[in-house]
Recover the amino acids of this structure.
């Protein structure tokens, strides 16, 4: 509990017209933590992620990432989008370099850092492919590489596996976990999959819908490393998923 | 298969033409062969190339201006909503109006010269160029804009890196469509203005009952327009290779 706080969300509220999307949200994400946000649709989990990313303004409350008060997008955070948001006119290399390009990194260094990120996500050999030529899973790997290339302290992932088929998703989740254990970045993941939340996270924050507020925070005491171990088949995993389901069922 | 169909359709068209000329629909209606002979003769005599040079001047002047004005206008319309809301009304009016009706007004204002026909070419093509650029900007994926913003993109960066490439396919389509409209405007202008260019050639041949020559000029104009449009389509495919 002594780990420094990477993201502090204090009293955040947000309304869209008459709809109260978020009310009094308080969450502290520890540095290096893997934290998931889960909740029924309409609980404002994506809105909360966008507020942290500085893409949406909160009506009330404050968010700090590291020691920066969030007033707009900043260099500490990278976002991984559900629909990948890749430039269709750019190659994999162009796409991975994109964040570096916007931040004014020189061409030679861009190429090196993009190459490293491409290796990390396992896309070597696809540098010159266009997104339209890649499967959904590979496109999201490009999205992840682009996010990693700028070397952020925090990864904000908005349902990154939602548009990917089940088998690909499981492999990708394991790869994400090994990357995370090597890089020790803080990860905040928005998801609607209970298994995914339990499998990946240290803690799971359950949001209640309309208005969205923190309903409960669950610890996930599964041992790590979880990837390639048969964690999913253990009774403990099943019980944790079931506990989460019991919480979520009451919110439907 | 496509090639066979294309060749077949050309052969079919020529046969139909030959048949129509022999029936005859009118004694003034030339056969394809007569037209082709007249075409070759007029190219050789230098009449067609000379007229083409003059016509191309109005076309380049008018269409060049349409691109120089239409593309930036469309981009601004797309980026600044208020400008788009106002300007689109006028452009849509220009599209809906029988533009040829404006020609007397243009001639009155600019006189019978190359500027007049360039202005008419401009009026014919600019609404399509601008409206397509406008549509292209409005079509830019808001998700990509959001992604770039998340990487702290500045306003100019957003424009250059997301809006322009995102709008490019529609801008190019607008250029191509605008060019076909520019040819229409050019010929209409020259038919009405008459003292120069391909339009004059068509009118003189008509008034002298040289209908094979008249048809030859029309065919020549079609060839020119077709070639220019095909070249543009090719350039478009190259630029948009990523849309595999």
């Amino acid at each position: 509990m002594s780990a420094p706080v990477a993201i502090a969300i204090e009293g955040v509220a947000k309304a869209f017209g008459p709809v109260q999307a978020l009310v009094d949200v308080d969450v502290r994400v520890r540095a290096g933590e893997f934290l998931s946000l889960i909740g029924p649709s309409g609980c404002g989990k994506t809105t909360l992620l966008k507020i942290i990313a500085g893409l949406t303004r909160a009506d009330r409350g404050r968010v700090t990432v590291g020691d920066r008060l969030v007033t707009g997008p900043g260099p500490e955070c990278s976002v991984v989008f559900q629909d990948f948001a890749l430039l269709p006119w750019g190659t994999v290399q162009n796409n991975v370099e994109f964040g570096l390009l916007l931040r004014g990194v020189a061409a030679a260094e861009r190429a090196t850092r993009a190459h490293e990120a491409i290796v990390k996500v396992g896309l070597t050999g696809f540098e010159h492919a266009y997104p339209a030529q890649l499967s959904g899973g590979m496109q999201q790997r490009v999205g992840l590489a682009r996010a990693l290339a700028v070397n952020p302290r925090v990864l904000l992932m908005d349902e990154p596996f939602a548009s990917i088929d089940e088998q690909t998703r499981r492999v990708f989740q394991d790869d994400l976990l090994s990357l995370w254990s090597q890089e020790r970045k803080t990860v905040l993941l928005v998801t609607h999959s209970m298994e995914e939340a339990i499998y990946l996270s240290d803690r799971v924050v359950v949001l209640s819908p309309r208005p969205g507020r923190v309903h409960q925070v669950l610890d996930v005491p599964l041992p790590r490393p979880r990837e390639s171990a048969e964690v999913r088949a253990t009774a403990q995993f099943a019980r944790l998923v079931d506990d989460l389901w019991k919480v979520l069922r009451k919110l439907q | 298969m496509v090639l066979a169909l294309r060749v077949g359709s050309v052969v079919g068209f020529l046969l139909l033409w030959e048949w129509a000329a022999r029936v005859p629909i009118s004694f003034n209606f030339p056969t394809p062969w007569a037209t082709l002979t007249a075409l070759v003769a007029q190219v050789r005599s230098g009449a067609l190339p000379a007229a083409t040079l003059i016509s191309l001047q109005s076309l380049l002047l008018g269409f060049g201006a349409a691109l120089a004005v239409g593309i930036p206008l469309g981009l601004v319309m797309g980026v600044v909503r208020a400008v788009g809301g106002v300007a689109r009304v006028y452009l849509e009016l220009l599209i809906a109006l029988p533009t040829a009706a404006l020609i007397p007004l243009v001639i009155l204002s600019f006189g019978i010269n190359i500027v007049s026909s360039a202005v008419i070419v401009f009026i014919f093509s600019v609404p399509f160029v601008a409206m397509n650029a406008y549509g292209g900007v409005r079509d830019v994926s808001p998700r990509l804009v959001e992604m770039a913003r998340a990487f702290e993109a500045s306003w100019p960066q957003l424009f250059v890196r997301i809006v322009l490439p995102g709008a490019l396919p529609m801008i190019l389509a607008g250029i191509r469509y605008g060019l076909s409209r520019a040819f229409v405007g050019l010929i209409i202008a020259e038919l009405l203005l008459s003292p120069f260019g391909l339009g004059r050639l068509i009118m003189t041949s008509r008034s002298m009952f040289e209908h094979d020559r008249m048809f030859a000029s029309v065919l020549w104009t079609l060839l020119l327009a077709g070639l220019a449009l095909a070249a543009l389509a090719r350039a478009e495919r190259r630029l948009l290779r990523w849309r595999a």
Remarks:
- Chain B touches chain A at residues 141, 143-144, 146-154, 157, 161-162, 165, 168, 240, 242-244 (CB under 8 Å).
